[in-house]
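Long-time lurker, first post. I've been practising inverse folding by hand and with some scripts of my own, and I keep getting stuck on stretches where the structure tokens seem ambiguous. Below is the full token string for one chain I'm working on. Before anyone asks, I'm not after the true native sequence, just a reasonable design that respects the backbone. If someone could post their per-position residues I'd love to compare against what I wrote down in my notebook.
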């Protein structure tokens, strides 16, 4: 299927090892490197860095890898030793293994020599798999707050601000905890504006937190946990006293801009005759805004591909199975095929393809990366008497596409940027 080839080509273009080629290896020369990798692509990034170090004759002393469950290459060496730590934890809601991650990293940082270099590799999911709450707050409350932020479709930057306020290691806390004089952080950014202070909640980047704004966020997004969080804000000093003797260099090596450029390159390869138009918003925005942007862009268009990168916020009110990508494809297929909102003739409907997937291989709490539908698959759904409206209302898009065999199943990709979606007409 052509859509699978498009995915494979795109993932190949945006892999971390490709991005490392832009890094000047001189910053690592004649240094003893201690490697700390955090996030859903931590094991993949570590493997790429190990190959990079071998190629450049660089020395890696100690390594600590913190990642999500089952997010490592099959050939990745997980053998724990005095110089190698590997640990998996939960995402998107932290669990006790996430708490253990925080303690492991704290011990790892405690045992580094001050004259050695700490190299940090950051990727999406780092905020969840690595948790070290402030002493003033319980881990149970931390979990409850995270659950409510996700359930109420909080934007990623707002989620990260609240995470920072709760943590000893986020918001520059890692700098404070480290003994080393020099830290270099290479990050794959899933943050819309590439604000480094928001990547993995800014473990190597401090920003002063505005308590008034945090209170507003709590009132907007939190329910049961709101009162306790507000009390925490009233009684806790959120300032982080950083180690002024530590020199920290933060570098973004991969981001949504790169994803957009490489996606356009791949689409041009497979659809050279089509006009490819990207919606400008590389940000997390509500699915209703995303829907309207696509519909307005599709009007009176033929032989076009309308595409975008970014993450949709979706407020889930039922307990079906699915994620933002499968929900987007189901919503747009209902509007374009079933409702025929653009008033197209059948030959025009047959040219429509709708696609959306998460570059990390995960769409919400499912094993799918996303979904795909065309006119033939739409007809298959009709033959099976699948009720578009019912599946949408129940937030059960995963099971809809499972019925017509059009889920995108990539497994963990080792890449952690944003989602990519397009509609071809």
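-- Answer (accepted) --
I ran through it position by position. Result:
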């Amino acid at each position: 299927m052509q859509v699978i080839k498009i995915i494979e080509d795109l993932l190949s273009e945006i892999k971390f090892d490709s991005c490392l080629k832009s890094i000047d290896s001189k910053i690592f020369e004649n240094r003893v490197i201690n490697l700390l990798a955090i996030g859903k692509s931590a094991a993949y990034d570590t493997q790429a860095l190990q190959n990079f170090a071998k190629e450049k004759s660089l020395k890696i002393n100690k390594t600590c890898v913190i990642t999500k469950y089952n997010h490592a290459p099959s050939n990745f060496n997980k053998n724990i030793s005095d110089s190698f730590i590997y640990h998996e934890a939960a995402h998107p809601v932290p669990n006790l293994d996430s708490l253990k991650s925080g303690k492991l990293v704290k011990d790892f940082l405690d045992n580094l020599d001050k004259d050695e270099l700490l190299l940090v590799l950051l990727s999406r999911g780092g905020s969840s798999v690595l948790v070290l709450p402030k002493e003033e707050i319980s881990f149970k409350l931390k979990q409850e707050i995270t659950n409510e932020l996700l359930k109420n479709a909080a934007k990623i930057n707002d989620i990260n601000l609240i995470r920072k306020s709760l943590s000893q290691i986020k918001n520059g806390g890692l700098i404070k905890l480290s003994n080393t004089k020099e830290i270099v952080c290479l990050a794959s950014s899933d943050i819309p504006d590439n604000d480094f202070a928001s990547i993995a909640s800014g473990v190597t980047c401090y920003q002063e937190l505005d308590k008034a704004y945090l209170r507003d966020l709590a009132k907007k997004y939190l329910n049961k946990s709101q009162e306790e969080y507000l009390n925490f804000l009233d009684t806790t000093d959120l300032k982080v006293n950083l180690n002024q003797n530590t020199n920290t260099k933060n570098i973004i090596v991969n981001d949504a801009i790169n994803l957009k450029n490489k996606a356009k390159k791949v689409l041009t390869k497979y659809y050279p005759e089509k006009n490819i138009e990207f919606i400008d918003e590389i940000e997390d925005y509500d699915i209703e805004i995303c829907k309207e942007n696509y519909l307005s862009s599709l009007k009176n268009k033929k032989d076009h591909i309308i595409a975008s990168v970014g993450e949709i916020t979706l407020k889930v009110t039922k307990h079906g199975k699915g994620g933002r990508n499968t929900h987007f494809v189901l919503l747009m297929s209902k509007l374009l095929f079933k409702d025929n909102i653009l008033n197209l003739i059948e030959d025009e409907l047959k040219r429509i393809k709708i696609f959306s997937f998460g570059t990390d291989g995960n769409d919400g709490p499912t094993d799918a990366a996303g979904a795909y539908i065309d006119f033939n698959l739409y007809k298959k759904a009709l033959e099976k008497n699948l009720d578009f409206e019912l599946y949408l209302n129940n937030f059960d898009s995963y099971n809809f596409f499972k019925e017509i065999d059009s889920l995108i199943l990539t497994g963990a990709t080792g890449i952690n940027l944003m989602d990519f979606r397009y509609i071809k007409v």
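A couple of notes from the structure itself: The chain has a mean pLDDT of 92. The first helix runs from residue 2 to 13. Happy to go over any region you disagree with.
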